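Just wondering, does anyone understand what follows?

——
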Amino acid sequence: MSEQMKAIRFHEYGGSEKLILETIPRPVPQTNEVLIKVHFAGVNPIDWKFRAGLLKNYMPVQLPSVPGIDVSGTIEALGSEVKTLKKGQAVFGVAKGAYAEYAIALAADVAVKPDNLSFEVAATLPVGVLTGWKAVEDAGIKTGQTVVVLSAAGGVGLGPLGLLARLNAPDRYPKGYAVQSRRQTVNHERFRSATLLPDRPPGSFLKSRPVCPARATPRRTLA
C-alpha cells in the first residue's frame, strides 16, 4: 500500500466550498522530479481560476485536482536522474499540487533556499517574480533604455524591481524605474534603496509602451 498524505482537493469546478481536505496517496517523483515536504504553499489568483473552471477550455485540469503552484519545503525524495539536489535540502519554486503535505516538482523548477530567506517568504515568490521577470525579458529591453514597472509594490511588480536592482550590469541590463499606481501608497525609501526610483516633481507623468501591444494600450501613470 502506498504512503498517504493530507491534501486539499476539488472534485468539480466551482467556488471555495468545493475544496475538501482528504487523505490521498503520496505522489512518487519521476526520473526528473523531486518530492517536496511542504512547509508553506503560496496562494495565487490563478489557483482559484483553475478551481472555478475559468481556464478549463484551454488549460483543463485532471479532476480531482490538488491546487497550488508556489511552494517551499525540504526535499523528501528525488528521481533517478536528479543530480543537482539532495534529500533534506531546503528549496522553493514551482510545484504541482502544493496544497498538500507533499508536492511534486520538476527538479529544474526549484532552487535551493538561501539561509536568510524564511520558508514563509520563499513560498510567496516564484509565480509573481517569474511572471514579472518574463515580462521584462519578452519586452526585448536593451541597455540604456528605461524600464517602467507599473504597480511595483505588487507581487508581480516586485520581481523585475528587485532583479533589475541586483542585475544592473552595464553590458546587459538597462536602468530601471519603479512606478506605483495612483491608488497605492509609494514607499519611496524602499525603492530608492533599490536604486530604481527616480526623483521626479510631484504630478509629473511618464509615458510607457506596453510589453504586450495586443493586450494593452499605452497609459499615463503618475510617477
About this structure: Residues 26 and 143 are 48 Å apart (CA to CA). The domain at 128-222 is CATH 3.40.50 (Rossmann fold). The radius of gyration is 20 Å.
